[in-house]
Every structure is written in structure tokens, then in C-alpha cells.
């Protein structure tokens, strides 16, 4: 049988060792299979020829037939470029190359007929086409070209002559090679028939060389279906296996510790969402199976309180609990918050971070082993081999995307029977993304703010109207409040004309001489950063000038104003996280998004969404649609469990839900993979797990 994955790309006609090395390094294409599954990012109709007198600089892509009258080299050094004056008899356009000049001069000749394809622009009153595709006129049959594929390439590839057009030619050579071979089908006949899917070989040909728009749609659907189906099948199979393998600790009662806290120490009435989520966790931990739950809640929604009450259930059943946070600042904040909640109760809480050393550390480690420490809060220091528990029953992981798989697994190993696991995130994750990133976890959502909290008012301000903004900040401080002012960079960047923190700090000090100003950024030592944040928390400073390091930081209920300079430089999720630093007290809070006048359409949409809604989930959905899953801040992690080559989680959400149901039905009917009609499916899943797709997050 023809195994594409074992055929080295260098042996394909037109590749060779030199090009193979570039394809290996730039696109991770090593085999014929890798090339076959490197899909086009767009298609352009090339069935029409234009005349030069018809075109202008606003057209997307055009195709011309004519000859190069002459070539000339213009400029020196980096400004050097090659210009070919191209004519079809109705006018002249300039073909321009900034790279590969020697290659172009050797390949193309004056006064020979070519078909030229590219995007026209206007420079110095003349129409230019930069780095066009050029083919000898006799080699192209226009009627057969129709939808031409376009492939993403890197600058290094283009400099070596490996542009999209070259990849297209290599793909044609590959299909020539495959003419006499059979490509193994990767879905069962039953799935193909039931869901009316195009056969694999036909789909692969039409994804690269679509014979019609309808066949392209069918090919895309088939390949997206398969990609999402195997991701969901892997997640669901793993989840079922884990549930069967790990029975989980049985937390049968809610006792004295929980009830004492609820009746005496609970600082305010729980919201309906908090009550619902705690009940879901009680049910999990009392079921005899291991809890694996993702708790999503917007900034300030009360996740820490819910986590604490869940930990108290562990204590009532004779077990210890542990909470792991990604930074020392956040771990310390959780420690102080939880100690304050538990004041007067006989519950021992300890903090373990990299800075806890000597006798203090020895005491904590000894008392964890005897069970004298009930709750341990810390950074990744808690997963070190020297940290051992008497009976760890519950692990809470905050901002779970910041921890790797191996780190989380080490906490599981701290007990012979794996503890219950609760992972929390303040980054709202769209449902479709959560199903894929965290598909093996049950999901709980806190979708209400605690009583007394007012929605943050968000406004968009252009940067030439600072006087009114500063007057507003001054009025808020006079009323006893505090303000954050956030900048995207620490120091001036030559490439970007944006405000920087150092200049901004001096400017704010001059603008507000009557108030004290803090400065915090990522290049400061942790101790300096903590000291500045503590000063702001104590209201010793009234204005905090910072970079995004405050995105996850101390809770300052008195801060009521968040100014974000150059807001156009931030993604939606990050803007929402920064806004969440205010609105934590009973006072009305404000977020001011400062931008210049020149904004792209996408930036305008981002700003409008921020002004219109405080709903983190609505914002996350919009962010996913605008930017795609690979760019989502706070959700994408190193070692993501899948490599999407064609599906798009933002746009293919309905298909994702559908294939999940298909995968669930298949698993229900054939949980052990023994039915002959599913043999192809289980074999393919096994192959995918062997290949260089990283499934480790869910394995």
C-alpha cells in the first residue's frame, strides 16, 4: 500500500535536497503527505484576461497577456529594485521585484509573450504590479485554470524562488505521482454514506484544484468534518477511559467546617450562579468518580469564594486541598483573601512560593505530611518532588492555561487515588473553543456579578481631547478614588509611533503634581513590583501608570478609573481583562479607551464591542471571530492538542457541535472499538496519535 507519510519530499519532481531543506524548516513539510495536507488559503478566478487600459489601482487581482519591453535596475542598497516595463499594446504597466533580482533576470526575457498575474497599485502616477506571477503564454490554458489555489509562504521561501506558484506546480507533480496509486480512505464507508461526504481522494484533489465552486465546498466540508471528528473522538474516548479508570475519592458529607463558614464567615449573600456551581461540584465529588471541572467566571465574579467553599467540603471529608496560581502575586493575593475569609476558624492555610525558604519552608513541608496544614496555596513550587501531602483530596488550578500538562499531572500524583480537580479561568472561553481546548472537562459558568457591583461604563476617547479626560480623573481622585493608566510598551519603539510608559509616567507626574504616582512594568524586579502595587493598594499612591502586568494583579476595590492608551494595540480579550481591574467596589467605575483617529475597520469593531458590552463571553465570541483561535490571548497554550489545517473553530462552530454528537454516538455503540464497520476509524485515530500532531493535552 502507498504510504505517503514515509515518502521523503526531496524525491518529488521539482524539489530536490535544497528545496526540501527549506520546506522542512519553513513549513515543516517532510513527506508527500505533509505537502498534500498543506492546503491553499484562498482561490482566485484566473479564467479572464484584462487589457491594460481597463485596469486601475483599486482592483484586487488582474491577469494580463503581453511582453516585457525592457528591464532596468533602479536605486542602490536596500532601495535597489528591478523594473520590467510590460505592454499589451493598449498601455504599459511596471512589473517590480525587490528580491531575487538575479533569478528574475535569468528566467524572463524581453519581447517574449507572457501571462502576468498580480495585484495592481499606483506609485508615482504609474500602475505597478509587485512580484507578479509570470508564465509563458503557451504554457497556460485559461479555460482550465478557473480557480487558482494560493498557498501561504515565508519571506525566506520567496527569496529562494519557492512562492505560491511554485508550490502549486509541486502539487501538480504530486498528483501526477499519485495517478496510479490508491490513497487509503480515512473514514468508514458508513460515515461517508450517512453524512454524504466526498471520498478522500476526490476531496484532496478538489481542495487544491477545484473543478467548480460547488466541488470546492464539498471538499472543504469533507476535510473539515474529518479533522474535527477525530479531535472530538480522541477527547471523548480519553474522557470515558479516564472515568472508568479513576473512580475518584468519595466526599459523602458537607459538615462542620463548611457549615460554620456558611453561617458565620460568609461575607455576603451568594449569587444564584455561585450556588448553582457549588451544587454541581458537590454532586461531582459525592458521585464516587473523579471531578474534572472547568470553572469559567468573568473578572470579579467570585470564583475564589466558590473555590474556597469547594475546598472546605474536602476538609469536611478528612482531606487536604491545594490551590496553584501562575504568579507569586496572584498566589499571595489568593492566600490573603482566603485567610481573611476564614478568620476565626480552625483551618490552617499556608503559602508556598519560590521565595519561602529555610525553616519556614521546612515547617510547611513537615506539617503537610502530618496533615496539620489543611489548605496549601502556591505557585508551581507546590509540584516539586519535596512537597508531599498526608491526604490530598482536591486540587484547584487558577488560570489553568498557564500550566503545562506535565505540571498538572504532577499534582495528580500527590495521592495514590487521584484528587478531584477544579481548574479556573477568568478568560471567558467561547463554547466552541472550550469544547476543543477543554473538551475532557465538565464546564461550570458563573455568569452573575456579586450584589452591589455596578457594570463598568466604557467610553472611546480620541487622544487629542485629553483636557476633559484629565479633569474627569482629577474629579474621581478628589472623591477618594484611584486610577490606572496603561501603556502598551515600556520604552519608545522606533517602528511604532505610540506612547510609551516612561514618557507617560513623566507626563502624568507633571499633569497631576498634587498626587502621588506609581509605576509598574514587567522589567522591574518582583520585589519592586510588589512594593509599588502594595503602595497603590494602601492608597499611598493615587495613580498607577503600568503596562499589562496589572492584567493579573492585586485587587484594588478603590480604583474606579482605567485609562488604556493606544487601545487599538490591544486585543479584545486583553482589553476586557484590563478593564476588569476596576469595578471591584461599590462605586461606579469607568474605562476610557484612548486611540488616534486613524483606525482600521477591525479596530473600530473591537472598540465598539468594548463600549457596548461588559459580557466577557460575548466579547470572547467576537474576539474568536475577529482574530481566530490561534491569536486568542489567554486561551491558546503551548502544546495545544490539535493542529487545525482547514477547520476554523470560529466559523465552523455548528459543524464542531455536529461532529461531537457523531463521535459520541460511535463511542456509545462501539466503546471498545471491536465492530468491523468502525475498523478504519480506530486505525486512523491510532495513526493520528503516532504522527507529529500534539495530542498530549488530552492524552
UniProtKB/TrEMBL annotation:
Keywords: ATP-binding, DNA damage, DNA recombination, DNA repair, DNA-binding, Helicase, Hydrolase, Isomerase, Nucleotide-binding
InterPro entries: ATP-dep_DNA_helicase_RecG (IPR004609), DEAD/DEAH_box_helicase_dom (IPR011545), Helicase_ATP-bd (IPR014001), Helicase_C-like (IPR001650), NA-bd_OB-fold (IPR012340), P-loop_NTPase (IPR027417), RecG/Mfd (IPR047112), RecG_dom3_C (IPR045562)
The keyword Protein biosynthesis belongs to this UniProt entry's keyword annotation: no
UniProt EC number: 5.6.2.4
Gene Ontology MF annotations: DNA helicase activity; hydrolase activity
Domain spans labelled Helicase C-terminal: 468-625
Record's catalysed reaction(s): ATP + H2O = ADP + phosphate + H(+); Couples ATP hydrolysis with the unwinding of duplex DNA by translocating in the 3'-5' direction
Cited PROSITE patterns: HELICASE_ATP_BIND_1, HELICASE_CTER
Residue intervals of the Helicase ATP-binding domain: 284-446
UniProt similarity note: Belongs to the helicase family. RecG subfamily.
Alphabetized PANTHER family for the sequence: ATP-DEPENDENT DNA HELICASE HOMOLOG RECG, CHLOROPLASTIC
Function field: Plays a critical role in recombination and DNA repair. Helps process Holliday junction intermediates to mature products by catalyzing branch migration. Has replication fork regression activity, unwinds stalled or blocked replication forks to make a HJ that can be resolved. Has a DNA unwinding activity characteristic of a DNA helicase with 3'-5' polarity.
Record-given protein name: ATP-dependent DNA helicase RecG
Species: Phocaeicola acetigenes
Gene that encodes the chain: recG
Amino acid at each position: 500500500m502507498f504510504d505517503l507519510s514515509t515518502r521523503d519530499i526531496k524525491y518529488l519532481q521539482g524539489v530536490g535536497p535544497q528545496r526540501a531543506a527549506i520546506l522542512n524548516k519553513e513549513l515543516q513539510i517532510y513527506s508527500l503527505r505533509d505537502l498534500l495536507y498543506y492546503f491553499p488559503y484562498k482561490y482566485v478566478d484566473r479564467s479572464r484576461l484584462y487589457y491594460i487600459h481597463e485596469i486601475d489601482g483599486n482592483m484586487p487581482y488582474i491577469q494580463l497577456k503581453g511582453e516585457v519591453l525592457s528591464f532596468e535596475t533602479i536605486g542602490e542598497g536596500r532601495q535597489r529594485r528591478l523594473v520590467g516595463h510590460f505592454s499589451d499594446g493598449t498601455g504599459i504597466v511596471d512589473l517590480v521585484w525587490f528580491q531575487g533580482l538575479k533569478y528574475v533576470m535569468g528566467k524572463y526575457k524581453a519581447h517574449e509573450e507572457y501571462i502576468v498575474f498580480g495585484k495592481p497599485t499606483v506609485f508615482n502616477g504609474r500602475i505597478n504590479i509587485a512580484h507578479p506571477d509570470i508564465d509563458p503564454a503557451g504554457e497556460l490554458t485559461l479555460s482550465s485554470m478557473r480557480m487558482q489555489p494560493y498557498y501561504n509562504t515565508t519571506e525566506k521561501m520567496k527569496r529562494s524562488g519557492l512562492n505560491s506558484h511554485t508550490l502549486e506546480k509541486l502539487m501538480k507533480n504530486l498528483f501526477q505521482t499519485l495517478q496510479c496509486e490508491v490513497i487509503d480512505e480515512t473514514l468508514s464507508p458508513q460515515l461517508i454514506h450517512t453524512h454524504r461526504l466526498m471520498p478522500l481522494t476526490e476531496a484532496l484533489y478538489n481542495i487544491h484544484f477545484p473543478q467548480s465552486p460547488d466541488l470546492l465546498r464539498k471538499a472543504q466540508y469533507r476535510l473539515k468534518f474529518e479533522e474535527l471528528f477525530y479531535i472530538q473522538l480522541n477527547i471523548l474516548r480519553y474522557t470515558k477511559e479516564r472515568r472508568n479508570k479513576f473512580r475518584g475519592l468519595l466526599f459523602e458529607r458537607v459538615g462542620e467546617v463548611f457549615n460554620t463558614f456558611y453561617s458565620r464567615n460568609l461575607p455576603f449573600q451568594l449569587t444564584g450562579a455561585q450556588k448553582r456551581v457549588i451544587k454541581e461540584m458537590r454532586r461531582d465529588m459525592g458521585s464516587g468518580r473523579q471531578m474534572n471541572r472547568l470553572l469559567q467566571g468573568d473578572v470579579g465574579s467570585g470564583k475564589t469564594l466558590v473555590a474556597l467553599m469547594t475546598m472546605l467540603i474536602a476538609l469536611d471529608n478528612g482531606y487536604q486541598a491545594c490551590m496553584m496560581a501562575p504568579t507569586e502575586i496572584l498566589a499571595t493575593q489568593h492566600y490573603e483573601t482566603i485567610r481573611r475569609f476564614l478568620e476565626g476558624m480552625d483551618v490552617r492555610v499556608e503559602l508556598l512560593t519560590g521565595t519561602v525558604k529555610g525553616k519556614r519552608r521546612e515547617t510547611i513541608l513537615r506539617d503537610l505530611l502530618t496533615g496539620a496544614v489543611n489548605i496549601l496555596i502556591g505557585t508551581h513550587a507546590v509540584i516539586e518532588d519535596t512537597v508531599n501531602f498526608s491526604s490530598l483530596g482536591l486540587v484547584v488550578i487558577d488560570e489553568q492555561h498557564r500550566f503545562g500538562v506535565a505540571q498538572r499531572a504532577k499534582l495528580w500524583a500527590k495521592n495514590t487515588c487521584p484528587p478531584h480537580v477544579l481548574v479556573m479561568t477568568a478568560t471567558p472561553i467561547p463554547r466552541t473553543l472550550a469544547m476543543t481546548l477543554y473538551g475532557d472537562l465538565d464546564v461550570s459558568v458563573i455568569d452573575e456579578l456579586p450584589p452591589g457591583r455596578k457594570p463598568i461604563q466604557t467610553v472611546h476617547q480620541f487622544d487629542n481631547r485629553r483636557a476633559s479626560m484629565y479633569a474627569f480623573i482629577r474629579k474621581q481622585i478628589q472623591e477618594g478614588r484611584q486610577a490606572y493608566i496603561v501603556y502598551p510598551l515600556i520604552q519608545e519603539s522606533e517602528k511604532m509611533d505610540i506612547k510609551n510608559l516612561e514618557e507617560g509616567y513623566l507626563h502624568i507626574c507633571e499633569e497631576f503634581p498634587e498626587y502621588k504616582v506609581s509605576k509598574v512594568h514587567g522589567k522591574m524586579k518582583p520585589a519592586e513590583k510588589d512594593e509599588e502595587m502594595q503602595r497603590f493598594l494602601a492608597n499611598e499612591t493615587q495613580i498607577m501608570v503600568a503596562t499589562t502586568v496589572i492584567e493579573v494583579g492585586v485587587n484594588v476595590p478603590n480604583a474606579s478609573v482605567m485609562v488604556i492608551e493606544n487601545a487599538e494595540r490591544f486585543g479584545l480579550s486583553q482589553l476586557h481583562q484590563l478593564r476588569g481591574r476596576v469595578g471591584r467596589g461599590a462605586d461606579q467605575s469607568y474605562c476610557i479607551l484612548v486611540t488616534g483617529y486613524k483606525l482600521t475597520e477591525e479596530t473600530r469593531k473591537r472598540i465598539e464591542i468594548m463600549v457596548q458590552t461588559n459580557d466577557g463571553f460575548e466579547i470572547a465570541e467576537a474576539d474568536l471571530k475577529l482574530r481566530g483561535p490561534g491569536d486568542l490571548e489567554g486561551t491558546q497554550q503551548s502544546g495545544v492538542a490539535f493542529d487545525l489545517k482547514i477547520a476554523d473553530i470560529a466559523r465552523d462552530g455548528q459543524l464542531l457541535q455536529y461532529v461531537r454528537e457523531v463521535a459520541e454516538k460511535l463511542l456509545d455503540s462501539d466503546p471498545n472499538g471491536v465492530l468491523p464497520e468502525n475498523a478504519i476509524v480506530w486505525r486512523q485515530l491510532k495513526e493520528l496519535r503516532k504522527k507529529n500532531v500534539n495530542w498530549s493535552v488530552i492524552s
